[in-house]
Amino acid sequence: MTRILASALAFLSLLAATAAPAAAANDEAGQAAVVERAVTQYIVPNYRQLAESASTLAGRIDRLCKEPDAKKLEDAQAGFRELLRAWAAVDFLRFGPMADGGRYERFAFWPDPRGIGQRQLRRMISEANPALLGEGALKSQSAAVQGLPALEVLLFEEPVTAAEGAFSCGLAAAVARNLAGIAAEARDGWLGETGWSRLMARPGPENAVYRSRAETLTELLKAELTGLEQTPDQRIRPALGDSPETARPRAAPYYRSGSTAEYWHATARALTSFAEKSEMMSLLPKEKSWIANSVAFEFDNLTRTLGALTPPVETILTDPAQRDKVSYALVVFSSLKNLFHDQYSPAVGLSPGFNALDGD
Amino acid sequence: MIRPAVLLSYASAAALSLAAAVTLARADTPEPAAVVDAYGDIALAMYEDALAGAKALDAAVDKLIAEPTEDNLKAARQAWLAARPAYQQTEGYRFGNAIVDDWEGRVNAWPLDEGLIDYVDKDSYGEESDENPLYTANVIANPSLRIGPDVIDASKITKELISEKLQEAQGVEANVAIGYHAVEFLLWGQDLNGTGPGAGTRPATDYDTANCTGGNCDRRADYLKAASDLLVDDLEEMVANWQDGGAARKELADKGENGALATVLTGLGSLSYGELAGERIKLGVLLHDPEEEHDCFSDNTQNSHYYDQVGMMAIWDGAYKRTDGSTVEGPSIADFVAAKSPEAAERVNEAMKATLAKMDVMKKTADSGEMAYDQMLAAGNEKGNKILLDVVDSLVAQTRAIEGAVHALNLSIEVEGSDSLDNPSAVQ
Fold first, then answer.
1. What sequence ranges are listed for the domain Imelysin-like (chain A) (predicted)?
2. Alpha-carbon distance A88 to A287, whole Å?
3. Whether B264 contacts B154, CB under 8 Å
């Protein structure tokens, strides 16, 4: 009861505080503007940030391996967390240059329910083959050993500051350089004459990917829905379990670096920001502007709830009060998914299409 | 836009009555109900063929158990291989039809931790897994086993034991105890060649109670027979679902015409993209892991993928060539889309042909003995990797084309979610 009342009050105040974005015509020009804003205001800046964070981290790990000490390890670990935040901003964008050539999976092969990455990484560390540390050598190895999950194991569980951890440190540096390379490729793939920005800006019969404006808009909608689906289904629910007894902290994303709650929170902010920066709600007809209000209200709930968790993840998953918050966030995710899928899509004349999670 | 203009010019040029114009339009655009009926008829024919294959396999299994010779083992393997194309062609029905998707795990679940079932090579497979407490439970060697808090009596290996106690035991999906891939493991054994040439080499004496290798040959035979019988039972159930008035037809009808048409396209799009391009092909190449091969014991993966595509094309075109060479056909979703948007239909046609061509390269490369599927996905095998990634790319383009068709029909497709979310009653 209390929660419903609080929600209702919050809703009313929200209605008063923020109006829906000014309605634009849901026509060719209006749709093109949404796509353009999504690309220039959200997608490109966030891939720039990703490339920068990865490159900064690679530099820090290089310095760590040259002269290992606790302070440099701390810097490297902080850099990892920063990169993770940057990744949360783009990890629901399952299209474009990042989806080409396995870049997405190479950047972050997760979830990995069969523990393939662990198995392959352990073997790699025990074999300690120096050839794998050479420039570009990791690229042809398994995706599960060349991205964020592998780097997390190396930086947070391997003795990288000790003599026996020299190979692991070298491997961490190689993984970070690999990440910087992938992120730079993803960023550059959006730019220039043949970049993905152009593809999205100019749909048509000759366009190899997008035949119509609606298809480019559908791509954005699918991204939003992918985030709203993969976060609860893959990143929260398996760890939460049905009860504190069946909670599985090891199924939580990036628990090794203690980043789970931060990652969830960053994801909520990212999904909010993507919708806001693109102003996709502006395409709604006037009589459907309640959808924009509901979406804004739910995003606000989501971000506030996930921002109020107190790590470590073991406590979040077992403390009843914190579990309640996480369960509530799952309800909000579901509500947002329905709003985008069942309300927003038909209101602007789109069908959301197939997404990468279908086979799971 | 083209069609009404044509009608209009006919009407103005000649004394074509309005009624005739309507008839003309009808002849061009199949009735949705007829498209859905033909879709159901093709499903029935496909599942009947899959069932026939499973029965032939079951007979070959009987023979192997009665007379465990290398020839009989070879014949059973051959029967398994022969049963696969028909089943794989049905996979275009899985997504979208909840009655199929909820059932699918019983027949084609994959990948599996095969140590649940029988002996494994501990050097390559390992002894334990963080994720699966039953990773090496080996029920064939153990008449009693602990599953969580319960001790299970496995003294007799029965259909009930493997389907109700072992399948997905402890909620772990990799505990696959039944279906094609369990039978495949029992016929071939583990493929210990990594990404090198060669499939599994289980000897026929694994079933020879007089000269038993691998231990517990009687229990292994019981297991194989139970799994093979179950496959027949489960396929019989699905054949019944697609008979006139069957549950699958009813489920479709209940969705209304647009809902049913959306189901047809959902099945094609979801199989093309998330499942086949993603889960089954791309993942294996990215991980360079021979375990990530759909038919990993028999080295038959190229055929499993290829016939998925053949089946999708049959569904799209409304024409299925049966195992006996005859054809079942009717008004197709392709015709229906073409009537609304010839461009959208043509895009799907082209995309499907392109995928089949890429699949054909993969199939020929494997069938000719040049490279098996698990060799193609090896780290550093650029040529092999490319063959598989070309298939992935063509499937992604195919998905986009199917989305174009969805858009042309102005349909809404329900993105496949997880059962536990969307349909709690389906979760036991």
1. 43-329
2. 34
3. no
* DSSP summary character for residue B151: E
CATH numbers and ranges of domains, chain A:
2-348 (1.20.1420.20)
- CA-wise closest residue to A349 among B410, B413, B269: B410
Print pLDDT tens along chain A (360 aa).
334 444 444 433 333 334 444 556 788 899 999 999 999 999 999 999 999 999 999 999 999 999 999 999 999 999 999 999 999 999 999 999 999 888 999 999 998 877 889 888 988 999 999 999 999 999 989 999 999 999 999 999 999 999 999 999 999 999 999 999 999 999 999 999 999 999 999 999 999 899 999 999 999 999 999 999 999 999 999 999 889 988 889 889 999 999 999 999 999 999 999 999 999 999 999 999 999 999 999 999 999 999 999 999 999 999 999 999 999 999 999 999 999 999 999 999 988 777 656 544
Cross-chain Cβ contact A102/B418 below 8 Å: no
| A357 contact residues in B (CB cutoff 8 A) | 274, 415-416
- Round to whole Å and give the CA distance between A227 and A355: 11
Handedness of CA A244, A248, A250, A251 (dihedral sign): negative
Question: B378 near B241, Cβ under 8 Å?
Answer: no
| H/E run at residue B144 | strand B144-147
CA-based nearest distance B422→chain A, Å: 10
- Sign of the C-alpha dihedral computed for residues B176, B178, B184 and B188 taken in this order: positive
Chain B contacts in chain A segment 65-84 (CB below 8 A)? none
Task: Answer whether A250 sits within 8 Å of B403, measured CB to CB.
Answer: no
> Looking at beta carbons, which residues of chain A come within 8 Å of B415?
225, 229, 341, 352-355, 357-358
Find the Cα–Cα–Cα–Cα dihedral B41, B45, B50, B52, rounded to 10°.
Answer: 140
Q: Is any Cβ of chain B less than 8 angstroms from the Cβ of A218?
A: yes
Q: Which two tokens stand for residue A236?
A: 């929260």
DSSP 8-state secondary structure symbol assigned to residue B30: -
CB contact A94 to B (< 8 Å) = no
Q: Which ranges of B18-131 does DSSP label H, i.e. alpha helix? A: 18-28, 32-66, 70-89, 98-108, 122-125
Q: Measure the CA angle with vertex B419, ends B414 and B420; round to 5°.
A: 130
User: Can you give the pLDDT at residue A115?
Assistant: 82
In Å, how far are A215, B353, B365, B389, B402 from B359, measured between CA atoms?
27, 10, 10, 10, 18
Mutate to test the interface with B, among A106, A114, A330, A345 (most CBs of B within 10 A): A114
- ipTM of the predicted assembly exceeds 0.95: no
C-alpha B343: how far from chain center? 30
Give the DSSP letter of residue B309: H
Residue of A nearest to B276 (CA): A359
